[in-house]
Design a protein that fits this description.
alpha+beta, seven-stranded mixed beta sheet, 9 helices, 35% helix, Leu/Phe-tRNA_Trfase_C, Leu/Phe-tRNA_Trfase, Acyl_CoA_acyltransferase
Length: 250
């Protein structure tokens, strides 16, 4: 079984998302936090050491090249995380949502090995982060920095982190009320025709997601950016460009 993609997108549009208790749990339930963690796109905290790692391209960063691999890595038990909330139904659901063009991943590679990344759902000018993982020092931080930079590049307005953690707080995330979150969400989804029924599924995430993720996936040129001309380049940006973008806007 998988969750119907239209139901899932409609849930995101009202501030709700699915979770499970454990990797092996059978039940999925819907969550609506009273306090919401978000990453202000112009408030990402880029430490000197992280900037150095990104600037030197210590890792290779891509998008949507191994979505299934990122989800599987996020779902695996680790020393600091014996179990996860990603059960098999949720994993299948987001793989299907990726196939329909709404779920996206950022992959972090050490050579040919996938060592970190994140995945989530893009809808309108919002990105709903679902999970991130690191199998090398700073790999998840690098993924989130690149995601934030690409979202700024593309004109997104909301990066939803769901629940606050000390890891997210150290990178600049803040916590807001559900009411304030819904206000930001309404602005980010203003042009998404969710009332059109299942026809919305044929549209994919839209132009903002295309601009943000396609260059890292090796697709078409990312033209039409609202940012400086120096950033409107085809193909993946370098770590140096990401650092410059984040430090100029923080």
């Amino acid at each position: 079984m998988t969750i119907d993609p239209l139901v899932l997108l409609q849930a995101y549009s009202i501030g709700v998302f699915p979770m499970s208790d454990d990797r092996d749990a059978e039940e999925v339930y819907w969550i609506e936090p009273k306090r919401r963690a978000i990453m202000p796109l112009r408030g990402f905290h880029l430490s000197h050491s992280l900037a150095k790692t990104i600037r030197r391209d210590r890792f290779r960063v891509t998008a949507n090249r191994d979505f299934g691999g990122v989800v599987s890595l996020c779902a695996q038990a680790a020393e600091d995380r014996p179990s996860t909330w990603i059960n098999r139904e949720i994993e299948r659901t987001y793989r299907h949502l990726h196939e329909t063009g709404f779920a996206h991943s950022i992959e972090v590679w050490d050579g040919e090995e996938l060592v970190g990344g994140l995945y989530g759902v893009a809808l309108g000018q919002a990105f709903f982060g679902e999970s991130m993982v690191s199998r090398r020092t700073d790999a998840s931080k690098v993924a989130l920095a690149w995601l934030t930079g690409r979202m700024l590049f593309a004109g997104f307005t909301l990066l939803d982190c769901q629940f606050m953690t000390e890891h997210l707080r150290s990178l600049g995330a803040i916590e807001i009320s559900q009411q304030d979150y819904l206000g930001l969400l309404a602005g980010a989804l203003g042009d998404v025709p969710l009332g059109a029924g299942r026809s919305v599924l044929a549209e994919g995430s839209g132009g903002w997601a295309e601009l943000a993720f396609a260059p890292l996936a090796g697709d078409a040129s990312a033209g039409g950016s609202p940012l400086l001309p120096s950033f409107t380049v085809p193909g993946p940006l370098s770590g140096q460009d990401i650092v410059q973008l984040l430090t100029q806007t923080s």
